[in-house]
Each structure stands twice: as C-alpha cells, then as structure tokens.
Amino acid sequence: MSKNEILKSFLVPKEALKLYDLDIFTLGKMAGAIREEYFGKKTFFNSNRHLNPTNECSDICKFCAFSAHRKNPNSYTLSKKEALDQVQMAVNNGALEIHIVGAHNPKLDLEWYLELFRTIKEKYPQIHIKALTGAEVNFLSKISNKSYQEVLELMVENGVDSMPGGGAEIFDEGIREKICKGKVDSIRWLEIHGYWHSLGKKSNATMLFGHIESREHRIDHLLRLYHQQEKSQGFNAFIPLVYQKENNFLKVKSFPSGQEILKTIAISRILLPNIPHIKAYWATLGLNLALVAQEFGADDIDGTIQKEAIQSAAGSKSANGILRDELISQIKDSGFIPVERDSLYNEIKIY
C-alpha cells in the first residue's frame, strides 16, 4: 500500500483505533519515520513567557486546579500595570513570545485584553503575541455581545499574532458534559479556529487526555482535527496534554502509563500528517518523557516558559520554567539537534 492508501485506511475510526493494539516499538518506528522525513533529528524550542492574567473563573471545569473557584484558594487578577511589568521582565530575560491565557473572568472584558495587546505591541513590536484560547474567545464573545468573528478580527487589529490551542480538551460532548460543562462546545471551538485561519493567522490545537476519556474518544478528537486542517490549513502544531491529577475535582483513580502516553503521541503523528509539528509539552509530560517522545513522533518540546501557573497548579513542575542552556544541553544529550525557533517555526539558531 502507498502512504496515501495507508493514511486513508486510518481515517476510518475503527481502523485508527487498531493502532493502539500495535506494540510500542512498532508505533515508535512508524511515527519516528514520519518525524524524520519532516525534520530529521531537529527538536524545536522557543524563548517564551506565559502570562496568566487571572485565575478567577466563571466556569467550573472539574479537571482544573488553576481556577480560584475550585480548589485553589489564592484568587488573583492582575492590573494592566502588573501584566505589563511581567512582559517587561520577560523581554529583559530574552523572551520572543508572550503566551497569554487566563480564566473566564467577567471583570476582564474584551476591551481590557485589546488594550493589553495594543500596549504590548506598541512597546515591544518584536514580541510575538500568542493569546486567547478558543474557549476564551467564546466567553468574551458572549459577555461583549459580539460574534466570535468580530472578536477574532479585533484581536488581529490589536496585535495578536497567533492563538494557542487550549480549550479543546476532548471533543466528545458526553465527556465535555462531565469535565467542562458550560465551556465552548467542540463544534464552536473548531469554527473559531477555522475562522482565525481564514484571517491568515496560525494557531495550535490540543487534546487533554488521561482522565475519563477512552481511546475511542482520543481517536475521534484527532480525526476531527485532521478534517479541520484539511479545510482551513492553519494549525501549526498539535499538543497532546497529559491530565495533571492534583488539586481538582475529577477524582481520576487510574492514570496513563508512560507507554500509553508515548503511544498516544505516536498515533497523533501518524493520524495528523497535515499538521506540521507535534509538541511534547514538557510542562505536562516532564522534561525526561518529553525528550523520549522525540523518538515517538514529537519534534518540539515548547520553550523556556519562564513562568507558568495553570499546569503547575495541578502538580506540574513547570512554575519557574527552564533555562535555555539547560534545555539545549538536555536535547543534545538525548541525541537530537536543538533548534531555537520563533512562534511560527522559522528557525533562529541551530545548536
């Protein structure tokens, strides 16, 4: 069978599900061959800073440890000056990207964010602004009485360069009803990203796995992303996020093994040949497993991060980021070639 025939067979959910029955070495070989064809031994990272303006949220997602309305008693909302001070610190520390994701806080309306974006872009035109998940866009659309299309157009006008992939969770609506009831639905999430792509902008896509979803739900999620990418061609990277188990209300008792995580990453590479990059996000995987994942189809591990509040609230060790030199050293020690990139995967420096 040709590559196209093999891919076509996997686009049938029952056939794609059979990939999980393969042993870990076979899957690694399949996904690794695709990765090697695309990028050789390169492993991408960037110099970025996460800015989380608030954790006060009107939603009640059961998997979330970040929201102050759940198990996190330490609520906060940054003033615009505090947010800009964090940006200044990030720039001083060499960040090229500001990744802005917060909570669904009605105190921070659309204009608050637009003014923040404008100010950042005016003061630091070199900074790439990656901001607002599809879920946040949907929320701001509701509280501003504007369509999501208008919100996205205003984001472009005010300096947002790309969108992160959060809020996707698992697309199956039955699972969403249990873990993130009231959040943007799967169809609207895909519509929001599709329209963003129609504006000539790029975004990422995520999948939160390892909680109450099944393998069938993961396959459904991946295939929906495949078909959306065929239509809008705007996803830069897919990021399989491993559920973080601490300080939330989901009460999951069994967690995926390292092999199950690596299988899922490998299957992502196999089923998403039209999305260029697969990111093994070290903030949820841990750096060691993220580096192993480079052998299983992943080609990116995110970046230095500097500060991070969402995953670390649920037990991840990502609160203070990682130094660039350490990241480079670890990638080299794993047998890969560190490549610093910008937010759109243009190569800045090969180490």
From TrEMBL:
InterPro entries: Aldolase_TIM (IPR013785), CofH/MnqC-like_C (IPR045567), F420 (IPR034405), FO_synthase_su2 (IPR020050), MqnE (IPR022432), rSAM (IPR007197), rSAM_sf (IPR058240). It catalyses: 3-[(1-carboxyvinyl)-oxy]benzoate + S-adenosyl-L-methionine + H2O = 6-amino-6-deoxyfutalosine + hydrogencarbonate + L-methionine + H(+). Its cofactor is [4Fe-4S] cluster. Residues 43-274 form the Radical SAM core domain. The keyword Transferase applies. Its EC number is 2.5.1.120. The keyword S-adenosyl-L-methionine applies. Keywords: 4Fe-4S, Iron, Iron-sulfur, Menaquinone biosynthesis, Metal-binding, S-adenosyl-L-methionine, Transferase. [4Fe-4S] cluster binds at C57, C61, C64. Binds 1 [4Fe-4S] cluster. The cluster is coordinated with 3 cysteines and an exchangeable S-adenosyl-L-methionine. It is an enzyme of class 2 (transferase). PANTHER family: AMINODEOXYFUTALOSINE SYNTHASE, FO SYNTHASE (COFH). Belongs to the radical SAM superfamily. MqnE family. Radical SAM enzyme that catalyzes the addition of the adenosyl radical to the double bond of 3-[(1-carboxyvinyl)oxy]benzoate, leading to aminodeoxyfutalosine (AFL), a key intermediate in the formation of menaquinone (MK, vitamin K2) from chorismate. This is Aminodeoxyfutalosine synthase.
